[in-house]
Design a protein that fits this description.
The protein is mostly beta strands and 137 residues long. It contains 1 helix and 8 strands; from the N terminus they run ββαββββββ.
Length: 137
């Protein structure tokens, strides 16, 4: 399945019944890491996932036993991104698949750039600008 660049969060959860409604829980870590913001509106897509044991309790846990997904970028990869905001050190921050953060020095919020990934870590990558793009490209 191909995932769009706009994907902010990917997780598994259970639908719970509460009175006359049903609810899903968003992992706390997605809000704490800034992937999602409280009081914002998001589109939600729901896919069925086969369960190995139907009677197992699958409540959301902030420290899941499964391994973290691999980063969606690789060193040397080139991408077009839009800088969303500045980080604490003044570097540009872009997000790619699953809300994965790419830090891009010498950029401004709203700027569209072509980048080359120079360093990949578990939860963040670093990149250099190879080309500055027009907003209308």
């Amino acid at each position: 399945m191909e995932l769009p660049d706009q994907l902010r969060s990917l997780f598994s959860t259970q639908i719970d019944a509460t009175d006359d409604t049903y609810r899903i829980e968003i992992p706390k870590r997605d809000v704490e890491l800034g992937t999602l913001q409280e009081h914002e509106t998001y589109r939600v897509a729901i896919f069925s996932a086969p369960s190995s044991t139907a009677d197992t309790d699958t409540t959301t846990d902030s420290t899941p036993d499964r391994a973290a997904p691999t980063p969606p970028v690789t060193e040397g990869e080139t991408r077009n991104v839009e800088i969303e905001h500045l980080g604490d050190q003044g570097d540009g921050i872009a997000r790619v698949e699953r809300g994965y953060v790419v830090i891009v020095p010498d950029t401004d919020p709203g700027e569209r750039v072509t980048i080359e990934i120079t360093d990949v870590r578990e939860n963040v990558a670093f990149a250099e600008v190879t080309e500055r793009l027009s907003y209308y490209d």
